[in-house]
Structures are given as structure tokens and as C-alpha cells.
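Tutorial handout. Part one gives the primary structure; part two gives the three-dimensional structure as C-alpha cells.
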Amino acid sequence: MATSRITPADQASGAVRFALPQMAGPIAGPATKAAEALLAPVGSALAELRRLAYAGAYAKGYAEGHAEGCARGLQEAQALAVRLAGIMDQLGQPLAEVDAAVIDAVSDLAVLIARHLVRRELKANPGEIVGVVRETMRHLPVAPRAARIRLHPEDADLIQAAFALGEDTRSWRLEADPLMTRGGCIVETDVSRIDASVESRLAAIASRMLGGDRESDREP
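Part two.
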């Protein structure tokens, strides 16, 4: 076994103090390049790990967001489907009411158009009232005696001039009514009454086209 020997200080006059070498300062060139060469793959590996970690986190977040978006879209689609089903039910149940509303609307439109056409025709040919009155008088059940013809004042002037040329003016009397629509008349006797007003004629036309009799068709 080897034994250590400690030399006393007074006997070690020729000894030299040992000092650690200086470790500071630049590393030798070849060593630096060697270290960089060794560390380069490590840095690349760390960069690749960071990239993969970021990509994984992004993919996870995208997947979660996509799943959430799909779930929300599915909920909205289901809600829309429920609304559409409700609308279809509403369309299927009150078909009779819808048909009645459509018929009323079409009837109103037909009467409105007819009234417009009649008024335009009367403006172009105001003398048409003469034929209307004569036709109405012929529909009286008995020979007119003191018949009262109610019509618009302007139409009354036309009838007065036309009937004065050959009609027996003693059998009828004109009554000017500014509330009457031009082109129509109402003939009354003691035993009968014929409504040949524009509104009544239009209502009759609408009734023949669509069936029924609506009081609103008689409104001016």
C-alpha cells in the first residue's frame, strides 16, 4: 500500500507553489468550431420540436374550434328545420282560410279594375247612361207610372235632353243625386225598385264570377 509523505515547510525550501491555470479568455479556434458543429444538430432539433409543438397546439385548437363551429351550425340547422316545419304546418292547416282570403283579394281586384274601366268608358262616352236608363225601364214589371229615376246630376241633364225628343215625360221624374256614381241609376215606382247603380252592377259581375254576394262590392 502506498503511503503519503508530508514534507515539513522548513525542509521544502526548493518547492514551487502550484497555481491553477487561468481559465478565462477565448477558446481556441478549432475547439469553438467543433463545439458549434456538435451543438448545431441540437439547435435544429430544438427548433423542430418548437415547430412541431406549435403545429400540434394549432391543430388541436383548430380541431376544437372546428368541432365547436360544427356543433353550433348543427344547432342552427336544427332550429331552422323546426321553424320550417312549423311554417309547413301552418300552411297545411288553414288552407280553407287561405283560399277564402285569396278569393276575397281577387274579387276586390276584379271589382276595382271593372270600376276603373267603367268610369273610363263613361268619360269617353257619357251618353251610355241613356241606354242604361232605357234598359232599366224595360225591366219594370208593369208600365211605369210616375217612375222616379235617381242618377248623377250630369247624367240627369243628358237623360232630360234625350227623353225630351220622343219619350213620354209624364211617366217618369228625374231626381238628381250627387252621391250617385256617373253611369248608373236607380228606378223606383210605387210597387218596384230596380238598382242599376254602377256599384250594384259591379257586385253582380263579381258574384257571377266568384259566387256569393258581398256587401263590400256595393261600396263606391
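Part three, for discussion. Residues 95-218 form a domain with the hypothetical protein PF0899 fold fold (CATH 3.30.2320.30). The chain has five helices and four strands.
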